[in-house]
Write a structure and sequence with these properties.
By secondary structure, the chain is an all-alpha fold. 73% of the residues lie in helices and 0% in strands.
Length: 127
């Protein structure tokens, strides 16, 4: 079981959130651009300090479900929720709980990995 499975399992006991996070990264530009796209989306909506804490080496700042919906947009949240059989509010709540740790684990050393490094990290986390 990968590290991400363990983290996600604490919340739901399954791999559903792994798939949800994978879908989110694909929606934001695929494996190569997804993480950078996500960081940019948060920064563009005035939450650069929040996402910066996830990328950085210190403590992760929390994010609210409303902020998730603000950053991703209601249509994107609705689409992800439908793909995963959840209500949009439930999906935003789950993302708010797991996204800080997910981004933190994908950015060891406090920096965004290059495409090749990200691919390796994702393979390790999503096993």
């Amino acid at each position: 079981m990968g590290l991400l499975d363990e983290v996600m399992g604490m919340l739901t006991g399954g791999k559903g959130q792994n798939q949800m996070l994978g879908s989110l990264l694909q929606m934001l530009g695929g494996t190569q651009g997804g993480l950078a796209g996500l960081v940019k989306a948060f920064s563009d909506k005035g939450l650069g300090d929040v996402v910066g804490s996830w990328v950085g080496t210190g403590a992760n700042l929390p994010v609210s479900p409303d902020q998730i919906q603000q950053v991703l947009g209601k249509d994107r949240v609705q689409q992800l929720a439908q793909q995963h059989g959840l209500a949009p509010d439930a999906l935003a709540s789950q993302l708010a709980q797991v996204l800080p740790g997910f981004v933190d684990k994908l950015t060891p050393g406090g920096q965004l990995p290059d495409a090749q490094g990200l691919e390796g990290l994702l393979k390790g986390l999503l096993r």
